[in-house]
Write a structure and sequence with these properties.
Layout: E1 3-8, E2 16-25, E3 30-35, E4 42-47, E5 55-58, E6 63-68, H1 83-91, H2 96-104, E7 113-118, E8 123-127, E9 132-135, E10 139-143, H3 153-165, H4 177-192, H5 210-216, E11 222-223, E12 226-236, E13 242-249, E14 255-263
């Protein structure tokens, strides 16, 4: 996962609203979000090369997602796949803060990353480059290939778009709840599909070439052999009912597959 915006305990009926893109090389095989056969308690896409994932849920309501930190100078030769960290967080039985602080103690074995973890009650982030664990108060946040809320143009734009899109959701009991959810899902998918690059003066400097900074600057990326592989939207309401929609894209940016999962945690929290 390389780009995610989320609202945590902002809307009175939906404590978690999230939209995300996974950017990766197209030659790396992956499977869309599904309940894993070898770990039936996990719902996530799967990296078929290393076996981990970039974002997922467990049946007890835990959530985790990871973004890479873009800085070629921080490469760790022979490091294990960071996708294993998401699975570890989903299978942890401790609260989110304890889980993240434990992971922070050995994060240096991996190439740089940011890891979001929620146990249903708390949501926090581990920034491996600083070693900091931050438990997040209610708010609208964005995370790309740097630290939380680093104001890269696509992040600022998508975060503002999420704030605006939340107005599509009903705040009280409403027979049009489904229509409101559908409108929000559509609006968030549009945000994730935005191919508009940032102007050169606003590009970050992350250690890659100017050409690559340009290619990587939109929310929806298309670069030689690399790009946005899937987009995800998550809505979780006050009863913990979770709607997880995912679209997979081909090398041309066309839709390959679409899946949607709806579930309630088997154990609240």
């Amino acid at each position: 996962m390389c780009f995610v915006v989320f609202a945590w305990r902002v809307h009175p009926r939906y404590p978690l609203v999230l939209a995300a893109n996974r950017d990766e090389f197209f030659k790396r095989p992956a499977a869309p979000a599904h309940w894993w056969t070898d770990a039936p308690h996990l719902l996530a896409g799967r990296d078929l090369e290393a076996g981990g994932t970039w974002m997922g849920f467990s049946r007890n309501g835990r959530f985790a997602a990871l973004t890479n930190f873009r800085d070629p100078s921080r490469h760790v030769a022979g490091a294990p796949s960071r996708g294993a960290l998401v699975r570890d967080a989903l299978e942890d039985t401790r609260d989110a803060a304890t889980c993240l602080n434990d992971l922070a103690s050995w994060a240096g074995a991996y190439a740089a990353f940011n890891l979001l973890v929620s146990d249903g009650e708390q949501l926090g982030v581990l920034e491996s480059t600083t070693g900091a664990v931050r438990m997040l108060p209610p708010g609208v946040y964005g995370l790309s290939n740097h630290l939380l809320d680093t104001p890269w143009p696509k992040l600022v734009k998508a975060r503002a778009g999420l704030e605006h899109a939340l107005t599509a959701l009903p705040k009280g009991a409403d027979p049009q709840q489904q229509a409101g959810e559908d409108a929000l899902v559509s609006a968030l998918l549009d945000l994730m599909r935005d191919p508009t690059p940032a102007a050169d003066p606003h590009l970050p400097e992350t250690g890659v070439s100017l050409e690559w900074e340009r290619w990587l600057s939109p929310a929806f990326i298309r670069a030689p052999g690399y790009g946005t592989r899937c987009s995800s939207v998550v809505l979780r309401d006050e009863t913990a009912r979770t709607r997880f929609a995912e679209w997979t894209w081909d090398v041309h940016g066309e839709l390959c597959s679409q899946v949607e999962h709806r579930f309630r945690p088997s154990v609240a929290g």
